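Chromosomal replication initiator protein DnaA
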Amino acid sequence: MSDHREQLADDGVTAEDRSKWDRVRHRLRSDLGDAVYNSWFTRLELERIDGGAVHLTVPTKFLKSWVQSHYAPRIKARVASEFSKVERVLIDVRSPMRKTRSREDGADQVESNAPHCAARAVATFAPALEAANEGNARRAARPMTLRHDADAFVGSPLDRRLSFSTFLVGPSNQLAYAAACRVAEARAGDLPMFNPLYAHAAVGLGKTHLLQALAHASNDNRRHTIYLTAERFMSGFVSSLTTHTSLAFKEKLRGIDVLIIDDVQFLQGKSIQQEFCHTLNALIDAGRQVVVAADRPPSELDTLDERVLSRFKGGLCVDIGPLDESLRIKILAARIASAKESQSSFYVPPEVISYVARTIATNGRDLEGAVNRLLAHATLTGAPLTVETAETAIRDLVRTQDPKRVKIDDIQKLVASHYNISRSDILSSRRTANVVRPRQIAMYLSKVLTLRSLPEIGRRFGGRDHTTVLHAVRKIEELAAKDKGLAEVIELLKRILSEQ
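Tokens:
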């Protein structure tokens, strides 16, 4: 037997090749740094070498796409420096039941121009996300719960255009995007990293896009995923009660891998919230993933059951903030490119794009509306677009800066301080004159300065009925119309609350 014969390891890779691969990994770590390497390369493994190709494997399609899109040239260069006779680097997704696997039909080659995957999260967030997963044990793989029978629970419709590849990333949504991508990467049987994942944002900033992208990616990763709006959840629950199928409704929800609920702030009704709480607890306790989105953080969801809010606060809460100018330019450019597919002559000069991005600082929907108005102007008049014509076209979309979001707690504290009483006096049942009037003023300000309904406001004022709030609002309106001094005090309180 030749002294040069290489002994094969258990996985079919020779000891010499294994040593070379270890050097490749060491060089990659040195090139990219520990943070990036630990986030994306620790699960990249050498499967075999044959036919002038190095076959690498990763555990998920998500990770495969990420490595292809972002690190292909680096990997190929480092492999070539150690494996002199290798011409190709191939990557595949290995079977979840084995450490590695062979494929007769080959694998996808790592190319530097591979398509963008569902994950483009900025690497600076990768270490934090990876660190959050340290110490989490992996559950034993369980059977897939994918259902294809006619009796399977039907979620809200998904728009295929709302994918990770079409989600534009900027500083305001980086963390939310990175967290959603990491949730989408998981496979059936993995212990959720962030559970629940709670995303909140104002209207038009992309939370629904992000949730639907996550739903698409999770389904593509062979996890049984249901995307529901709060309205769809409520109607499904009420329908199950009227048709005496509530048990089946509960079983179907508890049998899925990923539950995604959008606009949870609209969840109403004591029995509906109780059922949602039971579903939330059952899924989280069973190691299933829950993702929730709302227009405000959990601490401001005054109408939801405290047990539900406690669950939300125990997960990862991420904020999608206002769009910065560079991200607004990206969104405009993407919308314009889409419009050019149907109107090839549509052209928007760079100075017009910059003007619109500076002028409309609200949300993505307003930016899309601006592109539609520019398109209409260009196609209907035939005149070239200039900053002056753009100013006319988007005039109705230009808004003043959104007012500060005022909280009922702040209103109560300010009014109590102004009238030299305590906040507990305002919330109490006392009906003395020095308490009743400030209480009515606080109720009035809560109605005009917040988006809360009359029943919500009543609950925040010691559990009062909505008719009491309505009476207070009308009373203060009548008095302010007659009493100039009271009107000035109310305007002063409004200004202080807006500037706090």
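The two ends are 84 Å apart (CA to CA).
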